[in-house]
Amino acid sequence: MKRRIYGHFIIIALTIIAVLVVLLTGIFYNLSKNQVMDSLKVEANMISGSLITDNLNQNIQVLDRYQDIVRITLIDSDGTVLYDNEADVNTMENHLGRLEVMEAIAQGTGEAIRTSDTLNKDTFYYAVAFPNGYILRVARDAYNLRAFYQRTIVPILLTVAGILLLCLVLTVFMTRAILRPIEDYSKNLEKPDYRVAYKELVPFADTIRAQHAAILKSAKMRQDFTANVSHELKTPLTSISGYAEMMENGMASDQEILHFSKEIHKNATRLLTLINDIIKLSELDNIECVLSFEMVDVNAIAKRCIEDLSVNAKKNHVNFKYQGESCLIRANAEMITELIYNLCDNAIRYNKENGNVLLSIQQLEHNAQIRVADTGIGIADHHRDRIFERFYRVDKSRSTQTGGTGLGLAIVKHIVNLHEGKLTLESEERKGTTIVVTL
Ligand code: ADP
């Protein structure tokens, strides 16, 4: 970034310097041209004021007095050169065609500038016509623009180099001064009250800070998840390994072997359920795998879940009821099955003896509403926000005993988010819980 800023500054500085050099030399050259012409006019007027007679010889004597000041030419009305203090009049051609002479004959005065490319000089001419037909012309040489550049190129280049160096030094200081608050901000992203110095950057800085916080949070969640997974896997594996070892060493009686086998089976089932839930969550995390949405009837899915769960409900002495109507939405059928199953399974597992569970499906305009209400143990206020976190359980032993993994509601929340749906939870301790999902 710094290099780009330096590059841009140098290009801008070079352009400005080049434009300034061309512009200023043009202005100075024009000023000096005007000055030369003005001084020629003054001298022409002064000399013509001295020519008070019509006698050529007397006039030539007067003109001789000015020969060191300026080049003087006296021309007859027919263009013949009568006098020139710098050239032989006999070799000079007729001057009637010269611009300044033609202008002087027509208007009384005339001027012209002729450039000599070989000498790199401009010659300035000013002519005055007299009533008797004589024309007095004065002339002076001055360096032209090319000569001006040739003579001044070294100081110009030195000045440009000096200005460029100054620009470079200033650019380095300015860039550092501009970027320092941004660098400081990036180093202090974790301090919530550290503000970026430029108010224009506040929205950008807030977005970066929010993203940074989200990245840290997600990294922490992953870390916690890995730690939790390891812990959850370790407990049933330790049991399985312990029982198997005792059986292997012949330390168990026939009756104990039966009991140990049951325990091994129970823990292996728990492991399988846990691994299944972890796989489901990781599939949901990988959005690309779950984008196959189609028109599904939520009511038909709910009916299939009821069949599967009614055995569970009977085992737990819970009355499981259902109310529903055909309800079509665009969704992923597998995920909707998982969502209804998890909510109803929880409502049965966290219920009381002879408690009730009511699953209702309703079509609300273009949405489906899935409502699971139970008269179970309920959830205390301070747990409500956390039960959707992975592995968070209000009562871990009850969850484990009933085959819970602590991932059911995390999966539900994920599915609702992927369907851009809404989830609300109402619960009162010892009275029951109602979860409503609108998709
Ligand atoms: P688990 O596998 O432990 O059931 P969930 O993620 O499904 O995990 O639920 C998280 C926790 O929320 C549960 O351990 C339980 O304490 C509480 N919970 C979930 N549903 C209910 C409910 N219907 N009634 C009471 N508590 C519930």
Search tags:
single chain; binds adenosine-5'-diphosphate; 439 residues; five-stranded mixed beta sheet; 18% strand; five-stranded antiparallel beta sheet; alpha+beta; 56% helix
What would you say this structure looks like, in words?
The structure is a single chain. The protein contains 11 helices and 12 strands. By secondary structure, the protein is an alpha+beta fold. Strands 2-1-5-4-3 form a 5-stranded antiparallel sheet. A hairpin with a 5-residue loop joins strand 4 and strand 5. The two termini are 47 Å apart. The mean pLDDT is 90. The structure holds adenosine-5'-diphosphate. Adenosine-5'-diphosphate is lined by residues 342, 346-347, 350, 374, 376-379, 387, 392-395, 399, 404-410, 433.
Q: What's the count of strands? A: 12
Bound molecules: adenosine-5'-diphosphate
Shape: rod-shaped
Order of helices and strands: HHEEHEEEHHHEHEEHEEHHHEE
Structural class category: alpha+beta
> Radius of gyration in whole Å, from Cα?
51 Å
Low-pLDDT segments: none
Major sheet description = 5 strands, antiparallel
With strands numbered from the N-terminus, the spatial order across the biggest sheet is 2-1-5-4-3
Mean of residue pLDDT? Answer: 90
Question: Separation of termini?
Answer: 47 Å
Question: In percent terms, what proportion of residues is strand?
Answer: 15-25%
Number of helices: 11
Task: Provide the helix percentage.
Answer: 55-70%
